[in-house]
Design goal:
- Belongs to the threonine aldolase family.
- It comes from Kitasatospora atroaurantiaca.
- Keywords: Pyridoxal phosphate.
- One of its GO terms (cellular component) is cytosol.
- InterPro entries: ArAA_b-elim_lyase/Thr_aldolase, PyrdxlP-dep_Trfase, PyrdxlP-dep_Trfase_major, PyrdxlP-dep_Trfase_small.
- The chain is α/β, with parallel strands linked by helices.
- It has two domains: 128 residues, Aspartate Aminotransferase, domain 1 (Alpha-Beta Complex); 196 residues, 3-Layer(aba) Sandwich (Aspartate Aminotransferase, domain 2), CATH 3.40.640.10.
- Helices cover 42% and strands 14% of the residues.
- The protein has a seven-stranded mixed β-sheet, sandwiched between helices.
- Strand 5, helix 8 and strand 6 form a beta-alpha-beta unit.
- Helix 2 crosses helix 12, helix 3 packs parallel to helix 12 and helix 4 crosses helix 11.
- The protein is globular and about 60 Å long.
- The protein starts with 12 loop residues before the first helix and ends with a helix.
Length: 377
């Protein structure tokens, strides 16, 4: 007789995937997962060249945190910057500051923007702001749409790239037109992934940031940091943003691990991003060819605008996740991150991130690995 206590426990899907990808010989999307010991060792190694480790730890934002803020301000060509423990908090502070200056509690943003999709409507629940959508098309609004939105707003927030639409970026001309469409409107850039956007836009970080009054950037999405973000803009804006950071509970006693990992990420990843963006086009083309005969399958956008893009397949997410883990466990090939269901019936989507581990994959190897992946379905 079998007792309940004798049953083999079902492994946690996240733990199973973590273990499988760590043991993979090759990864196509993302970076190899690290356990805590490996992450600590990597931080200690990278930080040796990122900052003087003989200095004392930061206290409420001085020291290494202040060095990081100054580095970001210089990279973006802004007078100053403030470190935030989360991007969600940074966005709230930015929108609050511009609402106070403009006298308007209305913000124009996209319905797929991060505050709408991933922040539980914090701008409304915590800040009392109201959002308008100049467009629902999967792109930034045009100058005409902004001028004809039918409702006045004091702040325009643009997400570059627009992740939920497929990491979509405008052309430089479209971005200039949108940011200069309305006089007296403050422009805030959600630039969580701005670092890798310069290649599609064809302009430098300071040139892009100059189009906006404030810019938010992330330290973990592309740079591989532990956590954290920065908000850059005029000195008086940054001073006020720091006051809102304190009010929101972001005035942490010490944040040196996150700041060190951010500095290390800037040193390590910024020089590599152009190669990631270039190879993403190779990867996307190979994947598109591998699924060309599968109804409904597609790469979005094709070609990618950054080193990230979406892959859609006509299979349930559960089956795709199982195939992904089995391919990693049995053949040592880690192709994708998690799959999920979205708004298109019968299709599931994964986000492909081309980083250093993917650079040595040839189109033939990608096609062969994709063929092997599909056999598990």
């Amino acid at each position: 007789m079998t007792h309940a206590s004798d049953a083999v426990p079902t492994p946690d899907p996240r733990e199973r995937r973590f273990a499988a990808l760590r043991r993979c010989d090759r990864l196509l999307s993302g970076v190899r997962p690290q356990n805590l010991r490996e992450r600590l060792a990597a931080l200690a190694t990278d930080a040796e060249t990122a900052y003087d480790l003989d200095q004392r730890p930061d206290i409420y934002g001085d020291g290494v945190v202040r060095a990081l803020e100054q580095r970001v301000a210089e990279l973006l060509g802004k007078p100053d910057a403030a470190f935030f423990p989360t991007g969600t908090m940074a966005q709230q502070a930015a929108l609050q500051c511009w609402a106070e200056r403009s006298g308007s509690r209305t913000v124009a943003m996209h319905p797929l923007a991060h505050p709408e999709v991933h922040e539980r409507k914090a701008y409304s629940r915590l800040s009392g702001l109201h959002a308008v959508w100049p467009t629902t098309a999967p792109r930034i609004p045009t100058a005409e749409e902004l001028r004809d939105s039918g409702e006045q707003f004091g702040t325009l927030m643009l997400e570059l790239p627009l992740r939920e639409a497929g990491f979509i970026l405008p052309s430089w001309e479209e971005l200039v037109a949108a940011t200069t469409a309305l006089d007296g409107t403050h422009v805030h850039l959600d630039g969580a992934r701005l670092w890798e956007s310069v290649y599609h836009l064809g302009h430098s970080l300071p040139e892009i940031a100059e189009l906006a009054d404030s810019v938010y950037v992330s330290f973990y999405k592309t740079l591989g940091g532990i956590s954290g973000a920065a908000l850059a803009g005029p000195e008086d804006f940054v001073r006020d943003a720091k006051s809102w950071r304190h009010r929101y509970g972001g005035q942490l006693f010490q944040q040196w691990p996150a700041a060190l990992s951010a500095l290390a990420g800037l040193d390590r990843e910024l020089p590599r991003l152009e190669s990631y963006v270039g190879h993403a086009k190779v990867v996307a083309t190979a994947l598109a060819e591998a699924v060309a005969d599968t109804p409904g399958a597609r790469v979005n956008p094709e070609p990618p605008h950054t080193h990230q893009f979406q892959l859609w397949l006509p299979h349930p997410a559960e089956a795709l996740n199982e195939a992904n883990v089995r391919l990693a466990e049995e053949q040592g090939l880690g192709l994708f991150g998690p799959w999920g269901g979205r708004d298109l019936p019968g299709l599931s989507m994964t986000e492909v991130t081309v980083a250093s581990a993917a650079l040595d994959w040839t189109p033939k190897e990608i096609t062969e690995a994709m063929t092997a992946f599909l056999t598990y379905l």
